[in-house]
Records
---
Amino acid sequence: MGVARTPREAWIEQGLQTLATSGVEAVRVEVLAKSLGVTKGGFYGYFGDRDALLEAMLDAWEGECVDDVLDRVQRESDPRDRIVLAGRLTLSSERLLALDLAIRDWARRDESVFARLQRVDNRRMELLRKMIGTFCSDPDEVEARSLLAFCLAIGNQFLAADHEGRTRDEVRARASAIVLDR
C-alpha cells in the first residue's frame, strides 16, 4: 500500500494561513512542508513552482471571498441585509480579514496581485452599487455610499481612535446605518 499524498488543497490552505500570519515572503515550499509535517517532494506533484502555488492561493482566496460570499448573499431578500451579510462574511471573518489585509499588502509590491485585488474590489463595489441602487436613485450618491461602505469595512481595520464614550461597534453600526439609509 502506498503512502497517502498530502492533498493539493492542504498546500493551498497552508499557504494562505502562512500568507495571513507572516506575509508572502514566508510562503516557501520548505516552510509549508514543515508546517504540514511532510517532505517537499509532494508539492511538485501539484505545482510546477512557488509561483503556481501563489496563483492557486489567489484563486482560492477570490473564490472564497467573492464567489462563495455572493452565493450566500443572494439568499437574502433585503438589499441592505445583503450588504451587511457580505461585509460580515468577508471582512468580519477573522480568517478572511487577515487574508484580505495580507493580499492588500502584497499588492502594493506586485502588479499582478494588484490586478487581482482590483478585480475582487470591483466585484465587491458592483454588489454595493447594485444593492444601494435599490434604495437610492442618484448615481453619484450610489457611488459615494458604495465607496463609504467599502472604506468603512476596510479602513475600520486600521483606525486606532477612541470614540468618546462610545464603543467601536456602536460607532460602526451608526456609520453603517447612515450609509444604508436606515
---
Amino acid sequence: MKIKIGLLGLGTVGTGVYKLITSRGGHIRESTGVYPEIKKILVKNLNKPRKVKVEGLLTQNAEEILKDKEIKIIIEAIGGISPAYEYVKEALSSGKHVITANKELIAKHGEELNEIAEKNKAFLKCEASVGGAIPILHQIDRLKITDEIDFVGGIINGTTNYILTKMTTEGRSYKEALKEAQQLGYAEANPDYDVKGFDALYKLAILMRKVFNINVPVNSITRKGIDEITTQDLNYINKWGYKIKLFAWGKKVKDGIFAGVEPVLVEENNILSRINDVNNAIILRGDSFGEYVFVGKGAGELPTGDAVVADLIDILLNYNIKDNKRINFLPIRQGSFTDTFYIRLETHKENILGLKKVLKFLKEQKVSIVESSYENGTFTAIVKMKKSVETFTEKLEKITEIKTIFKVLQEDITEEVSKFEDFVEVI
C-alpha cells in the first residue's frame, strides 16, 4: 500500500525530509505496512540548484498539492506565518493530515489549527517544531498519562547555544561568535529571530501547551536575548565556575504559570553546562519520575527531518495518544524557578562608602552572598535571596544602578555562603 505526500518547501528541513523518506521508504513500509511516496513539492524557484534529484516533482502552485485528492499527508517546511498558515488551514479543513516543523505557526495558531484538525478527523503533528531531533513532544504525551509535570525548561535554540559556546570556551566576542555562526549557516544575516529569543519563545509556548494544557499568548512571556551579554560578565561567570545559556522555562504554580526566556547561569557540574554548539537539552520535572533531561541535536537538515519522519510514522501507524482537549487559560505571572541570582552593580563611588551602602541593604534584605568581587566602583556577586526578585530589584535600584541580573540554575548552593563581616578581602 502506498500513501501520497505533498511537501511544502525544499529548504534545509524540506531537503532533509525528502532524503529520509526516499532513502528509508522500504524500511518504513516494513514497519508500518505503508510505503510513503512524495508526489509533489512546492518551491518558489523551479530552476534553483538542488541537493536532491526531484525531477518532475516540483511545482510553484500550492493548489496542485492542496486540491489533489490522492495526496493524504501534507508536510509543511516553509516556515513563518504566511502563506504557511493558509496552506495548513486549507489542508486540515479538507481532511488531510499535516506535519509541520514551524514553531512560530504552532505557537501563535496551534490551538485554532488543532480544533480544525479534530473537527475534520485529521492529525496535526509538530514534533520537529521543538528540540530538533529530540522526540520531546512524544515523551510528554507518554509521561502525562502517569505523572503530573510541573516544570519544563531547557536549551532549545541551537544558534544562541553555538554563539555562547564560542564566547565562553574560546573567548570570542559576541560579534565574532555571531559572524562565525552566520558563516556556518547557523545564524541568518538578520539574527534577531534567534539572538533576541523569539525562536526559543515560540518553542516554549508549544512545550507549555503540551505539558500544562494551556494556551499561552507568546507576548505575555518575558523574553531576553543574548545580545547584551558582556565580556565583563563572562569573565566573572567563568571565574566562579559557571556557564551561561539561553534558557527557556515554564513552572506551574497553584494560581498560574511562571515562564521566561532569558540568559541563565548554570554550574559547571550541571549537565546543561556541557550542552555545547547547536545541541539542545530539555528538562521535565514530575511528581513521580523526578527529573528527566533529553539531549540531542537541535538543528540541521537530517536531525529536524528525522523528527518530521517520526511524526509521519505515527500517522501511518494510526497511532495517537489523545491530548486532554480541555485547554486552560492560566495567567503568566511574575516569578522565578530559583532564589539565586548573578548581579552586577555600579555603586557610583569608587570608594568604600558606595560598597558599604549596598552591603548594608543586602544584609537588611537577608541576602546571602555566594561569590563576590568589587573593582573600580563595580560590585559583582552571586546572591541567594529570601524575598522575591521583583521586590529586591525595585528597592535596590533606589540606591544603586543594576547593570546586569541573571537567574542561576543551581541545585545545591554551598552552605558556606559569605558573611558580611568577611568583606575585608572584597573591599
---
Amino acid sequence: MHRRRSALPLSAAALLLGGVPLLTGCGGETHPGAAAVVDGDRIEVSSVQARAEAVRDAQRSDPNGGQLIQQTGPLPRYTLNYMLRERVVEESARRHGVEITRRDVQEHRAAQEKQRGGPKGLEAFMIQQSIAPEHIDDALRMQLLIDGIAKAIGVGPRTPNADDVMNREFVETARSLDIDVNPRYGEWDVDLVSLIGGTEPWINPARTPQEPA
C-alpha cells in the first residue's frame, strides 16, 4: 500500500454537502481485504462497497436516478475518499473536545427537513450529494462536528480567510494520522486530500438493478 500523510483542504460545506469531486475498492499486499488503514484501524473493502451500493440503490430509486448516476460516476473510490475525510474530522474534533450528541443530530435533521420541504426533500437533496438515506445522520453529524471545530478554533462567518484557517486545521490534523491506502483505490495525496489514480474496476454506472453487482 502507498503510505502518505493526508491533508484536508476543505471547508465544512465543501467537505460533506457539495463541492467534493464525485469519484469511485481491495485486497492489498500489506493488509489483505482492507481498502485503507488509519492509525491501525482498518476500513474494510466490504464496508466501502456496501456504502457505495447503498448510494447507488438510492439513486436508482430516484426519479432523476439516471442523471444522478451519470454525474456521480465511480462510487467506491469517492466513498473511501469520504470515509477517510470523516476520520480526519473525527480526530480534529477529539483534539478540540468537540462532542455531538444524538439529540444534536436529531435537532439538526429536523431543521434540515424543514428547510428541504420534509423528510423526502432532505433525502432527495442528500442523494444528490451521494449520501444514502441510511447515512444521512452520519453526514449531519460530520457537519455539526466541523461547525464545532470552527467554533473551537475561533472561526466564524466574519473571520478573514475562514476557509484557509479551517484548511490549516485539517492539514495539521491529517498529518498526525498514519493513512495507508490500498493502491487499487489510488494514492492519498497529501496536498489535495484526495485519492488520485487507482486501477480498481469500479461499479458500472449504467448497471440496472437486475444485473449482478
---
Amino acid sequence: MELIEYEQVIPEINCFCKVFHSQLIEKEKKSPTGRPLPHWHSSYEFNVCINGRLENHIENEVSYIESEEFVLINPNVVHTSYEVSEDYLGFAVLIPEEYIRMYFENPDKKQVLLFTKQNYAPHKEEIWRLLYKLYLYSLSTASNRIIGMNSCILSIFTLLLTENEEEEESADTMDALSLKSGSQYTDYVNVHYRENIQLKDVASHFGFTTAYFSKLFYRETGRNFKFYLSTIRLSHAVFLLKSTDLSITEIADRSGFPKLRAFTDLFLK
C-alpha cells in the first residue's frame, strides 16, 4: 500500500490560513517517483491554478484544473496534486477546520462542514477573485497583509455557507454526504474527540463489533482509528498552544487526552 502521510497545518500567528506557493510546493515531501505523496489533514484546501495545468487525485477521483480554476478539498480526505505542464504557476491555501467551526455555537454545526462543487459553482468567479487577492496579500509585506488574507477567507466561506444552508434542507443530500468515503465515521470522531472515546465505543455507536469496525474504519479512511483520533487531538492541542495562554494540563484536557503524559509523549513523538 502506498504511504499516506498526515500533514500538520499551522498557519502564521493571527492568520486563518497557510499559503503554499508553487515554488514551495516543488520542495515539499516527495515520493521516489518525484511526485508529492498522498496525504491528509484536518483542513480545507484550495488548489488554485493561475497558469498551466494541475492534476488532482482526491480519494479515488482524478480531476484537472487549468488557468484561473480551482478545486476545493474537504478536511480528512486523502489527496495529492502535481503539475502536468512546465509553465504551471499556482498555489494552495489550507484553512484548519477548527478556524471555521469556532464561529458556530449551534451544536448541530459541530460536525465537519462538507462542501461540494454545487456549493461553489454559483460563486466560482467571485471565489477565484478572492483566492487570487489572497495570493497577492500572501506575497505582500504591507501592514494589512494578515487582515487582508483573513478577510478573503471569511468572504469565501460566507459564499460557500450560503449554498450549504440551502442544501441542508435536503435530508437525502446530507445523508449522501455523510456516507461518502467513511466521512460519517471521521465526522463522529471530529465531534467527540474531546471525550474519552475508544474504538469499542464508536463501533457500538454504529452497531458494529470492535474487530469489524476497526477493519472497516481503516478500509474506508485509509487510517488506523487510534492514529486518526490521536492526530485530531494533537491538531487541536497545537491550535490551543498557538492561540491561547492555557496551561499544558488544560490544553491536554480540552483536547481529549486522558492523561497529560499521553499528550506530552505524542507531542514529542
